[in-house]
Amino acid sequence: MPEVAAGLTTTEAAFIENAQRDGRMYIHQPYELYSEENHESWRKLFSRMQAQWRQYANPHFLKGIDSLCFDASQVPRLEDVNRFLQPLTGFQAKAVSGYVPAFDFFDCLSRREFPTTITIRRSDRLDYLPEPDIFHDIAGHVPMHTDPKFADVLVRFGNCAHTAKRLVADIKDEKVRQQRLTSMIKALARFFWFTVEFGLMNTRDGVRAYGSGLLSSYGELAYALTEPRVQRYPIQMEWVVNQGFDYHHYQPLFFIVDSFEHLFQLVDELERWLASGKLENVAPGAPDINDADHNSFLRAETPAQA
User: Fold this and answer.
1) Is residue 84 part of a domain?
2) 70 near 45, Cβ under 8 Å?
3) What is the mean pLDDT of residues 167-175?
4) Does residue 306 form part of some domain?
5) How far apart are CA 187 and CA 111, in angstroms?
6) Number of H helices, E strands in the chain
7) What's the rounded Cα separation, in Å, for the pair 108 and 159?
8) For 114-128, how does the pLDDT look when each residue is reduced to its tens digit (9 = 90+)?
9) Do the domain assignments include residue 1?
10) Cα 34 from chain centre
11) What percentage of the chain carries pLDDT values higher than 70?
12) Domain hosting residue 79, numbered range
């Protein structure tokens, strides 16, 4: 095994490159490889988000931040995060080497596991995030996983991937199967994007963010809730599953839910739409669905139904 250079900086980590080359998607967190610059990135990111969170985050997130007892001075150890998280909702952060194909990602959620990136962005590029990093995943997503109702939403959503898998399993025509699966994956990805990643929620103090893409972004969190040109609408399924998105810039459109109970009901509705065929021909556009996403559904073994 070649010696691995220190540093777990996003797009610059030899440890991650080796894992990807070896085909290892699920990995461990080699904590000893984090450099002082990596810890400095965490310190800066965590420090500057404090005021933003207090002003714009939903109360469930704020409670989750307190429950996880993060050390603001250094990148967290996943084993420490899980020690606080698992007793609350059964969820655990699971280290990955990079992109996780669609079915594998959703299946992890159904098993109360959250695929977690272990690299962190450079300390001089805090606002530029070419891909998810540990701050986005651990400080943005995981505090929400401490809430039992939200955790149940994620599990329920993950189960929808198994429904989609079953629906295409018996289609013999390859072209038809490819088209329908592409449409269903698009719909699932769009729903996840406009809720779990960029969702807004009504609270007693007004509209607040619960989407992790917002809660890990210093600039976009305030933008989403204060920019006059931004469109904010009560969520409607037909809009969400047919609405493309572009992750290269701030989002122009957000959807608002009333509660996590409301969100759970929406996931139930999403599965009903899957089963009825209403997601087999959603509007074209982003996100692009790649071969890895398709193959993750086609190769996956669907558990037998009780």
Assistant:
1) yes
2) no
3) 91
4) no
5) 21
6) 13, 6
7) 10
8) 999 999 999 888 886
9) no
10) 23
11) 95
12) 36-299
Predicted local distance difference test score (pLDDT) of residue 299:
85
Structurally, the chain folds into a number of domains equal to 1
Average pLDDT over residues 160-172: 93
Identify the bridge partners of residue 231 per DSSP, sorted by sequence position.
253
* Mean pLDDT in residue range 145-165: 97
DSSP 168: H
CATH of the domain at 282: 1.10.800.10
pTM: 0.94
pLDDT of residue 248: 85
Per residue in 26-84, pLDDT (tens digit) is: 999 999 999 999 999 999 999 999 999 999 999 999 999 999 999 999 999 999 999 99
225, amino acid identity:
L
Using alpha carbons only, how large is the chain's radius of gyration in Å?
19
Cβ partners under 8 Å of residue 20, min gap 6: 97, 98
In angstroms, the CA 12 to CA 120 distance is 10
* CA–CA dist 294, 296 (Å, integer): 5
In sequence order, which residues have a C-beta less than 8 Å from that of residue 40 and are 6 or more positions away? 123
Q: Among 104, 140, 105, which Cα is nearest to 121's?
A: 140
pLDDT band at residue 130 using 50, 70 and 90 as cut-offs: low
Cα 137 to Cα 23: distance, rounded to the nearest angstrom? 22
Specify the amino acid at residue 97.
S
Q: Is residue 62 part of a domain?
A: yes
Please give the Cα distance from 158 to 105 (Å, whole number).
Answer: 8
23 alpha carbon, distance to own chain's centre: 22
Question: What is the Cα–Cα distance from 120 to 213, expressed in whole angstroms?
Answer: 15
pLDDT at 212 over 50: yes
- Dihedrals φ, ψ of 120, to 5°? -135, 145
